[in-house]
Amino acid sequence: MSGEQQQSQAGDTTDPSMDQPQTDYQARANDDENTPDTTYANIPDGAYPGGASGLRGVCGFLRARRICLAAGIAVLLSLGALGIAPLTFSNKQQASCPQGYTIWCGTCYKAFNTSTSFSEAGAACRADGGILAMPRDAGTNAFLVSLYKSVSDDRDFWIGLHDQREEGRFEWVDGSALGSYTSWGPGEPNHLLNEDCVAYTAIPHMKDKWNDDNCYGQKHFICQAIPEYP
């Protein structure tokens, strides 16, 4: 929802069904944004080249068990205390992200401080060899919140979630279904005024939660990309 139309408190939900009735459905992003990017669709957690044995490998294992955030932070702090670089590999290779990106559990992320529409944000991510960020679990979601706060704490940020192809059926920009994890603000998604695209919101009463909004709105955005290895 846009503005100050909801007054209840924010909270994560785990309702696997997002098939809520909607009425207004007119806004559309550009056609290329409606075509799923399958580059990321079938890549299992941690299934990236390089033979990771450090934090990335551990996170890939733990994330499948829905505890990547707590375990990852614990491992990161432990390695830091020992003076060990958290992203080391048995063959001494180092993950390489696009410039300005930060790696988390085998994926590179970057929050951009420029404002654009949902479609244009997706195009900017593709120009970087990536895609709009897809926080599929609590650990990644918490990481992305902390990441974009380092850029701006009072702006909305697009993520790669929408229901442009079928009203009420939210999907990620790679074409995969939303899944069981969500972080909607109170009363969201409410599909008000052709709201088909999702962003982290800066609205005070549901700050840092997901909010469906008009796809043509001007917002900051977060991209993700697959790291490369030498």
From TrEMBL:
Residues 104-224 form the C-type lectin domain. CDD domains: CLECT. Keywords: Disulfide bond, Lectin, Membrane, Transmembrane, Transmembrane helix. Residues 1-25 have a biased composition (Polar residues). One of its GO terms (molecular function) is carbohydrate binding. Pfam families: Lectin_C. The keyword Disulfide bond applies. PROSITE patterns: C_TYPE_LECTIN_1, C_TYPE_LECTIN_2. The chain crosses the membrane at residues 67-89. This is Alpha-N-acetylgalactosamine-specific lectin-like. It comes from Branchiostoma belcheri (Amphioxus). The gene is LOC109472072.
